[in-house]
Amino acid sequence: KMFDITDSSDDVRDINRVTDMSSEKFDFSDSSISGVWELVKDVFGAFRDSDTIQKHLETLNDVPNGISDQHIKDCQSVAVKDFDSATISEWYELSADGRWDKITEFASHIGKAMGISFKGVSDDMKACPGAFGYTNGHDGIIHLNRDLLIADPGQIFKAIDTCAHECEHIRQYEAIHDPEKFGIDEATRKAYEIAWTNYNPCLPSYYDPIGYSYNTCEVCARRVGEAVAGAAAEKLTDIPVEALD
Questions:
Q1: 3-state SS assignment for residue 133
Q2: Of 229, 98, 87, which is closest to residue 159 (Cα–Cα)?
Q3: d(CA 177, CA 180)
Q4: pLDDT at position 215, please?
Q5: Could you say which DSSP state residue 22 is in?
Q6: How far lies 203's CA from each of 47, 145, 222, in Å?
Q7: Which helix (H) or strand (E) holds 232?
Q8: Distance CA 228, CA 76 (A)
Q9: Which residues of 164-182 are buried (b: 16+ CB within 10 A; e: fewer)?
Q10: What is residue 191's predicted lDDT score, i.e. its pLDDT?
Q11: Which is nearest to 114 in space by CA: 220, 195, 17, 3?
Q12: How far is CA 67 from CA 26, 59, 71, 91, 167, in A?
């Protein structure tokens, strides 16, 4: 059903892609595009022809920023505390296990700041081995690519970004089911629900332009992740240059 939000354990809702898929793998000739359009136009037609869905689509990206801004500020405070100048300068001296312990602890603090049912961090990336991270939203677990984010200490801010990004997806999922807990109105809840239902990370930005890259839930998660990592990155200016040599 259109608006069912399932709890399938195989359902990966965000893969936080390292890169989009290479355009060389696709045939973008007029004849090819026309053929694809024949396959998908009925779906687009269903959106246009349904008054109910159209009404919801009109508010799809109309998510109020007030609540979002506040929880971003809360998460930024966590990032600045967990990754102060001393921690950032010491990050390169930590072992990979030490960095993993630090980032997983940070993720739990972000989960607490967001008020989500955070259940931990997994380094199991079998579902999306080339991604920075992902979550299915409903089990409270975020998956982080230990090789990409932790083995390379230069990915410190991407690791912070990814933690906040994936936790934000859990918050979105939980807000759909319990809007009162997260203080969101019905319009916002419905916008999340529609975006979540249409989430499709398989072919981002190609044949499904709102399935991933510009999906409301993905746009919001990018905003949260980048803002939180940006707050921590500002602390880098507090570190004497010689401390990084």
A1: strand
A2: 229
A3: 9
A4: 84
A5: P
A6: 20, 21, 18
A7: helix 216-233
A8: 5
A9: bbbbbbbbbbbbbeebeeb
A10: 87
A11: 220
A12: 40, 17, 6, 32, 16
User: Which ranges of 130-201 would DSSP assign to H, the alpha helix?
Assistant: 156-177, 179-182, 186-197
- The CB density around residue 106, as the number of other CB atoms within 10 Å, is 23
The one-letter amino acid code at 203 reads L
* Comparison of pLDDT for 154 and 237, the residue scoring more: 154
Q: How confident is the model at residue 2 (pLDDT cuts 50, 70, 90)?
A: very low
Model pLDDT for residues 180-221, shown as the tens digit of each residue: 999 988 988 988 998 888 787 765 555 666 778 788 899 899
> Is the model's pLDDT at 121 over the cut of 90?
yes
Buried b (16+ CB within 10 A) or exposed e, 211-245: bbbebbbbebbebbbbbbbebbbebeeeeeeeeee
The secondary structure of the chain in percent helix, strand, coil, rounded to multiples of 5, reads 60, 5, 35
Letter for the amino acid at 170?
I
At residue 12 the predicted structure's pLDDT band, cuts being 50, 70 and 90, is: low
Question: What average pLDDT does the segment 213-238 reach?
Answer: 87
